[in-house]
Each structure stands twice: as structure tokens, then as C-alpha cells.
Amino acid sequence: MYYKQLFTRLNIEVPNDFIEILELHKEKQNANEFSLRVMDSDEIVELIEFLSDIEVYQNIIPLWTDDNSNYVGVFYQGPLKYKICYIDHEETDISPSFRSVSSFIRSIEQDPDLDWRELKKEYPVETESCLQDLEDDQKSIDELNHLLNSNDLDDDLRCQLLFSIMALTPKMHLDSLVKYLDDEDMYVQERACEILGYHRYIPAKDKLIEVSESGMHNGKQAAKGALSRLRG
């Protein structure tokens, strides 16, 4: 089995049903052309070796590519275990976009011609999730917050942890993100504006107005975009 051999080679332990889902998908990829294709094992190993020195990528195994130096990866350990992220060669943002391998595969199999940006993502969550999903996401958020509070993090890792927390946060807990509108990291401030605007979170309106007037450059622009969504 292709994936069983791959994970053994990489010394990564995953459940059998995880492998079976990937094997069935690979058969479909062998029979049809996909915009996001399954990578071969040598490609995966080479890319993992390349990414291994970059801390933010160390819990991720890339499995798909668009052949334009962008990749779709799976978290194989850590707080985001088995969630799906995108590895963009131009901009680092490894916050989860799909809840699981099966939901991502289901999405690309429905329309193999879609590229990553055209896929309908599961995060940030547009509609209220079921109780089990909410509990799972909250567990991930708690573990991410523990990492934030227990380590002396470099700016890049801190930023990525916060990006993930914001992506996972459900509408009922958006108030917990308002504090990041005052963050000293301009990328964190920018993302907080984007997420609150995405959810059209009205209680943040006054703070967004403040950021649009006196925030950092990225934050100002993102706050203006968020306010536009609130008006819409």
C-alpha cells in the first residue's frame, strides 16, 4: 500500500482508516486529472526535508500540490492533528482550512478542476457547527493557547498559532478575538480585522473604526475592509 509504506518511511503513525481514505483517493487520481494532484513519495520526502528547518511546518506532511510550488498538507501531530492546511510559497498561513482529510478529499473529488482558492473551506466556520465539532475545535484552541502561554515563541510561530486560533473560533466566541485588534504584530492585527469582518461581528465596530484610523498599515486596510462588510 502506497501510503502505508510512505508513513512507515517517515516514521509517522496514523490510523488505518486514514490510510484507507488516502488510498481510495489515489486510485481516483490515477484515473482522472485533478487540479490538486497527489504527490509521489520522493517529492513528499524531499519537501519535508526542505521544510524541516522551518519551525512552523514541523507538524505537517504535504500530500498534494498544484505544481506551482504550493502544497496542501495534513497536520500529523499537535493541536491541529489531521486538519488540512495550505502551504503557499508566497505567503505563510498554515491555519486549518478543512476539518479532516475526508472532508477535503470529498471537496476536491466533487470538482477535480477546482484549484485551492476556488474550494469552499470549512474554516473559518460560516454556520454553527454540531456539538462534537465545536468541542473538538475548542480542544484545539485550548491546546494552541497553552502553547502560546507556555513557550518563548518567535514572532513567526506566534503569528501562525494565532492565525489558527482565529480560524477555529466559532461565532459565539468572537469576543475573545477583539483583543488582537490591539496586537503589536501587524499581521495578527490584520488577521483579527479580517476574521471579525468575515463574521460581520458588530460588537467590534467601534474598535475597527479606531484601527482603521490609527492602526498599523496592514491593520488599517483590513479594518476598512471589515467595516465595509459590516455595512453590507
UniProtKB/TrEMBL annotation:
Classification via Gene3D superfamilies: Leucine-rich Repeat Variant
Record InterPro entries: ARM-like (IPR011989), ARM-type_fold (IPR016024), Knr4/Smi1-like_sf (IPR037883)
Domain of life (superkingdom): Bacteria
Name of the featured protein: HEAT repeat-containing protein
Coiled-coil regions listed in the entry: none
